[in-house]
Amino acid sequence: MKLLKSFIFSILFLSGLSVCAQNKDYQIEGNFNNPAGITKLYFTQGNFMGQANAAAREIVVKNGKFSISGKISEPIPVFLSLTEKFTPNGADSKQFILDAGKISVLIPGALNTATISGSKAQDDVQKYTAAQAVFTQKFNRLNVEAQQAAQAGESQESLQKRFMPVFKEAQQDLMSFQKTFIGQNPQAFISLLIIPELAQLSQNYVEADSLFNLLSAPIKGSETGKAIHDFVSAQKKTSIGALAPEFALADTSGKKIALSSLKGKYVLLDFWASWCGPCRDENPNVVQAYQKFKDKGFTVFGISLDRDRKSWISAIKADNLSWGHVSDLKYWSSEAALLYGISSIPRNFLLDPQGKIIARDLRGPALIEKLTEIFTKKN
Questions:
Q1: Which end of the chain has fewer CB within 10 Å, C or N?
Q2: Which residues pair with 67 in a beta bridge?
Q3: For the purposes of burial, counting CB atoms within 10 Å of the CB of 267, is it exposed (0-12), middle (13-18) or buried (19 or more)?
Q4: pTM for the complete prediction?
Q5: What is the pLDDT of residues 186-197, one digit of tens each?
Q6: DSSP code of residue 133
Q7: CA atoms within 13 A on the CB side of 41
């Protein structure tokens, strides 16, 4: 029951984006109301694909005033600190989104109390953060209540039953707010940054692509926009709402089995391997779900990323995995793994009887909870 992160700088960190040509001027003018002997501070540029993309620049502070100038191609996160190493949320540091043009930084006390003006991108972040506060407060309150109940001795099972529905409802409310904000603010850079967070919460990358298309052309065409679009597009083919990509691999007897042959049932595509410790730890949960729902129209289709046939079959027997299994014994080069973009295991996808993906990565009790929801509605 983790509190959802509310500050935008923590929502998306993809690697591998090169810094593009910089062509817009910015000018930061700063003023400490009470410099108290401060003679320097440090300025670091970041990007939304990772933390710092340049070494911290030492900036001279004279009589409480400082000036920083340079060029950027699009809004970027920047960090001001009194020490060379930036400390998030520290009193001696400040982070904000830098936009082109003239930016004013007024520091009435500690550096983290600084107010920023002149950056439309930062103004939009503050607008979003203020509107989102009601949801953050609700998650905080629910977390406190759950922690107090746990400390009072309430069982994990009871906590799950009592708090998971309200957490899910709160999450749905947050996502509805985010969708509305994006639609109403298509020219805000923050709207672009919300999309991957929203997609990862909902696991619906088809919807995320539709939201991306609502954004203004300059936002979509930015380097960050292109990277987020690539990320969403790559995930879309195995998104909730998408038809599961077809494949056929050999089972333990060498007979090829096509995924489409299982249509008509709810199917859990389970990517695993005998050498994967977390997969083996998760197997008892899948066995429990299978035993509970196999007579109601549910089955499991195991896709192994093993290389050794003997190890694969031994693990199936040892873990009592009494459902269909396939593998081409190609490890991470497995045809199915590549098709589904698998870069870590265990991974799973729940399909409806028509072969549409309706859930992803159901771990622990989440699988039984989802199946219980499905089959309760059917009855």
A1: C
A2: 29
A3: buried
A4: 0.75
A5: 999 999 999 998
A6: H
A7: 29
